[in-house]
Amino acid sequence: MKGSDEKDVAATLVPEYAQTWDKNVERRLVRKTDFILIPLMFVGYSLVYYDKAILGGATVFGMRTDLALSVVVDPTTTPPKVSTQRLSWATSLFYFGMLAGLFPLTYLFQRFDVGKTVGSVVIIWGAVAMSTAGVTDFRGLYAQRFFLGFMESIVPTAFMVIISGYYTQGEQTWRQCLWYSSTGGMTVIGAILNFGFAHIHGAALASWQYLYLFAGALTVLFGIVLLFLPNSPADAWWFTSEEKVVAIERLRRGQLGTRCQKIKWEQIKEALLDIRVWIITMMMGIAYVINGAISGFGPLIVSTFGWSAYDALLWQMPLGGICFVGILLVGYLSLKFRNIRLIMLALNCLPVIAGCAMIWKSSWYRKAATPIAGYSILGTFAPVTSLVVSLGMVNVAGNSKKSFTAAATFTFYCVGNIVGPQLIVTETVGRHYPRLWEAIIVCYALLVVLSALLYFMFKRENSRRDALNLDREEGDKIAFDDLTDKQNLYFRYAY
Predict the structure, then answer these.
(1) Sign of dihedral through CA atoms 234, 235, 241, 243?
(2) Each residue of 117-133: pLDDT tens digit?
(3) Burial of 400 (0-12, 13-18, 19+ CB in 10 A)
(4) What span, in angstroms and rounded, lies between the C-alpha atoms of 161 and 107?
(5) Cα angle for residues 160, 166, 172 (degrees, 5° grid)
(6) In the CATH hierarchy, which top-level class contains the domain 25-233+263-477?
(7) In 3D, which of 256, 253, 104, 101 has the Cα closest to residue 166?
(8) 267, 398 in Cβ contact below 8 A?
(9) What's the whole-model pTM score?
């Protein structure tokens, strides 16, 4: 017999056997959760993305010069040959910080109260973001970027795990995509904000310093709001007593559970030995190589197509719009059609490959149309990454295993983002940064292959479990025992 601390918190609110519930109550509580959680997460991840993307805008408007992020390596050429390796490292060090923070901070929110833990860390993150305005050279920026990444690492993993505890398996992809779509939405809004701040002249501070003060202050306010986030549906303050029971009961058949704060090391060991977990996490890293380049160098790359610095900022908007619409579209389709996630993932890789080829092989004359069109359709990388995030959560059960998988997924996210900026070699601008586009094309071709492999593995395992003809009522009894997807043969994979 398991102790209460080893079971899901849902086991304290509902009996072992399945209960019927009022569908009207279910619809009402889902609407409540959508109304509260999704906007909160949308704002939160917007801040995460904007915080990273500011660097690209800030470098175009003074930061590169103020902090000596670019160095003239050959003054004899016309124009002088410049190295942006320091900017590449400033971009990459953020993700080294995330790598350092992912597992310890994931442990904290898994072990302790979600709202108080995540909210406190986010407040510190906001303070670190504002401190960027006080940085005076590239070394200080290196340190600031590392600690910024460390603090931010708690947000995506926490959001992934929280969504998986409130929604059914069929509902999760759409909801994960709703908050994740903020990457595209904030690309559009951020371009407008950056454009506005860039026009601040003659003030006490540089325009890029105001950008960081603004973003950091918003983040602190957001962190204060997060302090009131409940631990699970069992103690969600927006539910009535009846709604709490229904909120938990409706998750029983999915066998995913809601929340268990006990760290189970056997589940972490299982995750380490689960090939499907590693395929999903590696897919995240491969998919995010492109983001590391675009978030830090996007406006700089576009400016080399013959556009002004101001125009380069505004050209981030079409890319962001495609990200936003694409994420929402794949999320909505996954809600309406079963098991099309991996098919959509593979299809969205194709425009990315085409976009890279268009940029690389076209002519870069002043205000050239082909490279900017290719750059814009790179936005289909965002639906790819949102589907990878969803796959990791709907196909992993057991709270410790789920938290480990979320942290591992964003570990590889960091690796991809670290690699991306290093592929931009300023000296090869005349040949259109060939190393960058070659690498992205190879990465996205590999994603298509891994999608097909994962589709086959999930489908085969589901067929094997279906052939066992297990008693569904027995499955209802163990739904909140905090079992992993491998331990629980009633669990079915979604692909």
Answers:
(1) negative
(2) 999 999 999 999 999 98
(3) buried
(4) 12
(5) 60
(6) mainly alpha
(7) 256
(8) yes
(9) 0.79
